[in-house]
Design goal:
There is one protein chain. The protein is built from 6 helices and 15 strands. Strands 2-1-3-4-13-12-9-10 form an 8-stranded mixed sheet. Helix 1 packs antiparallel against helix 2 and helix 5 runs antiparallel to helix 6. It is globular, with a radius of gyration of 18 Å.
């Protein structure tokens, strides 16, 4: 794991502290006088692929938006699709906050960008599914969720620690009531970005209380974890990066051979100005006077 501190706002810088805990996960803290977000991501290449076809937001940014994307179709084009999708979304909203209309428009634009990029290389298709979460207010109490395909978002609260709330609904052939292609499954994604199989993103607005956590993941994770698995690991008093690593490891232990990515975002109480707030491990933040 690698830890870093990143300010939410450029005029509200916080102390930056880096700490290495071994490979596998990255953790960051985004802090301002009115809010604190802890985030961690872990990803693993599955035995199905030579390279990891999942992609995710870098935690070195400003914490305005978090994305997990899953390449579909196999090979380099799936990997290209997922990485282009994440990059396009972050570029589009580098200086603005997404809303339900603009994020759907950005997904449609990404569909064309990815399709054109792949078309310059090969006639073979490539696409990606995705899930996105972005805070909409200064307190990070209200969040936009957007998704295409079968990447998922969940909410977990320590006040109801045995309950995992699904916030998305998979765009699968079965859920959409559409005919399954020959050789396919009702559980396969029917909507993707990069091959023209999308009309834009599904969007929802959700509240997030202090202490609650959002989990974004690819199907290499959620298809192999029961709700109780999530709840048991998320309730542990550990660094967020350790939780992310262990979720991926448990999915592997329970049969996942696909690429597996999980990105966790926890809304925490901001530290009072001038007061040092130490977490459960070596990642620390301190408000400047």
């Amino acid at each position: 794991m690698h830890g870093l501190i990143t300010p939410l706002e450029p005029d509200r810088a916080t102390e930056r502290t880096a700490a290495s805990h071994g490979p596998g996960a990255t953790q960051a803290v985004y802090a301002s006088p009115v809010r604190r977000l802890d985030a961690a991501v872990a990803t693993s290449c599955g035995s199905y692929h030579r390279k990891n076809e999942d992609a995710h937001s870098s935690l070195a940014g400003r914490g305005r938006m978090f994305v997990v994307a899953d390449g579909v179709g196999g090979g380099a084009m799936a990997q290209l699709a997922s990485r282009l999708l994440v990059a396009h979304l972050h570029q589009t909203f580098a200086a603005s906050t997404p809303d339900e209309h603009s994020v759907s428009a950005a997904v449609l634009a990404a569909d064309r960008v990815i399709g054109d990029a792949i078309g310059r290389v090969t006639d073979k298709p490539g696409a990606a599914t995705m899930v996105l979460a972005a805070p909409l207010d200064a307190l990070a109490a209200t969040w936009l969720l957007a998704w295409v395909g079968d990447c998922r978002a969940y909410r977990w609260s320590p006040r109801a620690s045995a309950l995992l709330a699904p916030l998305t609904r998979d765009d699968t052939f079965g859920n959409l009531g559409e005919a399954v292609p020959a050789g396919g499954s009702p559980d396969d994604p029917a909507r993707m970005v990069g091959n023209g199989a999308t009309l834009g993103a599904n969007t929802r607005i959700h509240a997030l209380a202090c202490g609650e956590l959002l989990a974004l993941c690819s199907d290499g994770v959620h298809k192999h974890l029961a709700d109780l698995d999530w709840c048991r690991l998320l309730a542990q008093p550990q660094l967020l990066a350790v939780k992310a690593e262990r979720l991926v490891a448990l999915a592997r232990a329970q049969g996942s051979a696909d690429d597996a990515t999980v990105l966790l975002i926890e809304r925490a109480e901001p530290a009072p100005r001038g007061v040092r707030r130490d977490g459960p491990g070596p990642v620390r933040t301190r408000s400047e006077p």
